[in-house]
Structures are given as C-alpha cells and as structure tokens.
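Hi there, hope your week has been kind to you so far. Please have a think about how the structure follows from the sequence. I've dropped the whole record in just underneath, so have a look:

_____
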Amino acid sequence: MTLLPTLLIDRYKTLVRRLEAMLAPWLLGLAARLVFLAVLLPYYLNSALTKFDGLFRISDSAYYQIALPAVEAAGGDVSAVSFLPWGAMVFFGSYGELILPILIVIGLLTRIAALGMIGFIAVQTLTDIYVHNVDATTIGALFDRFPDSVIADQRLLWLYPLIYLAVKGAGLISLDKLLCWRWASHH
C-alpha cells in the first residue's frame, strides 16, 4: 500500500527537479524583467519625461515633484534651492527614474539597477506619503482585506520582481550574461 504513494512522490520530485533545472536558469529572470517591462517601464518612463526639458536639462517641475518643501521654502524659486541635498535628490532621482528601468529591461547591470529601483521606490513612497500627503485610503495597509491600495499593496508587488532580480540576476537571456560570456572568452 505504501509503495504507490512513495513511487508517485519520487516521480513528482524527479519531474520538478528536471523542470527547475531546465527553466530556472533563463525563465525566472526573463519573466521578472518582462513583468517590469509590461507594468512599470511605461509608468517610470512617462514620469521621467515630466522631469526633463530636453535630454540634459532637468525641468522646474522635477523640483516640484521631488523637492516640494525646498521649493516652497525658496518662495517658489527653483534656482534658489540648494544643490545639497535637494538638488542632488532631484538630479539623481530624475536620471535614475529614466536610466534604471531601461537597464533592468535589457538586463544590463541588472542587480545594481534593481537595487537602485528598490531604493527609488522606497524614496518615492516616502515622498508620496510625507511630501504629497496622500490620504490613508491611498496608502492602504498590508494584511487587510483590500488588495488594491496604491501605496502599500501595489508597491509591495512592484518590489517582488526587483528583489528577485537583485538576488538572482537577469538570467541567461540578458546582456549581463552575454557580457560575462564575452569577458570569460577573452580572459
């Protein structure tokens, strides 16, 4: 009687090990990057484009979006906002929002870019809560019965593919892997 369940469990374990060995090296990193591409790349690129007047000039609206307290303290004069810390936050935030998502999608410097985006989402969340003073419904709460809050629930789901990419990397189908192969063949 116990032979059949043991046999089935052994077959199941063998099948799962084979599937994992076949799919894990390329599918999971690619899937995380495709999820990011479908869900977050359009969001971040559209947001980044509101922060630039041309490619190399950060717009005044970037200061209002990122450093509103400093702009208000300067009487609305963006040029009076000090570079440290506010101007640096606007500069790195604006370029980070533009460059990091592209690096993730193409799988280049993926772990670093994913860590950067995790930090970006943390700063973005704090900015939304403390600078833009979003309401409690928008913030939401974890472990409640409402899975659609814009901050707590959505941002947690945004973080998962980034955490995966930061820990495991982009996978075999990425520029990271291509560069590793080329580096290994030349050294």
Summary: Residues 147 and 178 are 39 Å apart (CA to CA). The chain has a mean pLDDT of 94.
